[in-house]
Amino acid sequence: MDQGLFNKKITQIEDNIFEVEGLRKGEYDVQAIQYDRLISNGLYNRIMWGNAPDAYTDFCKSGLESLNDGIVADIGCGTLSFTYKAYAEHHKKNIFLCDQSYEMLKIGENRLSNICDDLSTIKFLRSNALDMPFKENSVQAVLTFGLFHVFKNPSGLICEIARILLPEGQLFLTSLCTDRKLSAKYLNFLHKKGHVAKPLSSIEIKNIIEENGIKVSGFNVKGGMAYISGTKDKS
Ligand SMILES: C[S@@+](CC[C@H](N)C(=O)[O-])C[C@H]1O[C@@H](n2cnc3c(N)ncnc32)[C@H](O)[C@@H]1O
User: Fold this and answer.
1) Ligand 1 center to residue 150 CA distance, Å?
2) Domain span at residue 170?
3) Is residue 147 part of a domain?
4) Phi/psi of residue 121, nearest 5 degrees
5) Does the pLDDT of residue 31 top 80, yes or no?
6) Where are the beta strands (DSSP E) in 15-112?
7) What's the CA gap between 164 and 141, in Å, rounded?
8) 6 in a domain, yes or no?
9) Within-domain flag for 42
10) Which of 102, 127, 151, 207 is at a distance of 20 to 30 A from 10, taking alpha carbons?
11) 112-121: average pLDDT
12) What's the CA-to-centroid distance between 89 and ligand 1, angstroms?
């Protein structure tokens, strides 16, 4: 592992799993298996979010396909439930799959290694999305799916992404949003239970991204999910 890329000490904890030294445990550790089962369920995604999991996979693939070289970081990659096929197809790229939860990363690692023999350029990195270990201007593309809506202060996430991205580096982001009635109701329920932050509309999400240094170039809403891509400002 090239420590020159990082501004924090990185420790290897397993063959292909690394972590930022001193990082506290991820909150998803205790519910990783149940969470993975629920979100992988096609019916759940169709009913609650008006989406098919294939749409998440396609968005990840389209992001990866648009990149030639440089470092790619998936922030809050979770169990790779929807993305493992995309990463297997692009396994030659220099990819960091990042999440605070070891248990989520471990499920993701098993899933990916079951369909891909060569993970020599893919690393799993336990890290905090709000305080990433990458140096400023070091990452070519950030992918982050289903994480934005978790944070009370999502500007903090976008600021951190803008910090690590190279000038003109790319962002591919999905977030649950309130644009679809049933999804909004369920999101509000999840918010009251403390599972997600205050729900936002897709336009509010787009505005937060643009206010924090990323110019949005792709904006699409399917059901209760916003699919947004953009580029970090040049300067
Ligand atoms: C809603 S899940 C989304 C997982 C995956 N991207 C997907 O689309 O299935 C959110 C993920 O973000 C991770 N997470 C939550 N807070 C985090 C933080 N502060 N830093 C890094 N990861 C975090 C959780 O462990 C979980 O795996």
Assistant:
1) 8
2) 13-232
3) yes
4) -110, 10
5) yes
6) 17-20, 71-75, 94-99
7) 9
8) no
9) yes
10) 151
11) 96
12) 22
Report the nearest atom of ligand 1 relative to the CA of 28: 25
Give me the pLDDT at residue 234, please. 82
Residues 137 and 167 sit within 8 Å (Cβ to Cβ): yes
| 28 pocket-lining for ligand 1 (C-beta < 6 Å) | yes
Helix axis angle, 202-211 to 154-164, nearest 10°: 40
pLDDT at 235 over 80: no
* Ligand 1 centroid distance, CA of 95 (Å): 17
**What six digits make up the tokens of 199?**
């729900």
Ligand 1 centroid distance, CA of 90 (Å): 21
Q: What is the domain count for the chain?
A: 1
pLDDT tens-digit map of 36-60: 999 999 999 999 999 999 999 999 9
pLDDT digits (tens, 9 = 90+) for 9-26: 999 999 999 999 999 999
Indicate which residue's Cα is closest to atom 13 of ligand 1: 76
Contact yes or no for 88/104 (Cβ under 8 A):
no
| Domain CATH code at residue 67 | 3.40.50.150
* pLDDT tens per residue, range 165-182: 999 999 999 999 999 999
Neighbouring C-beta atoms of residue 32, cutoff 10 Å: 21
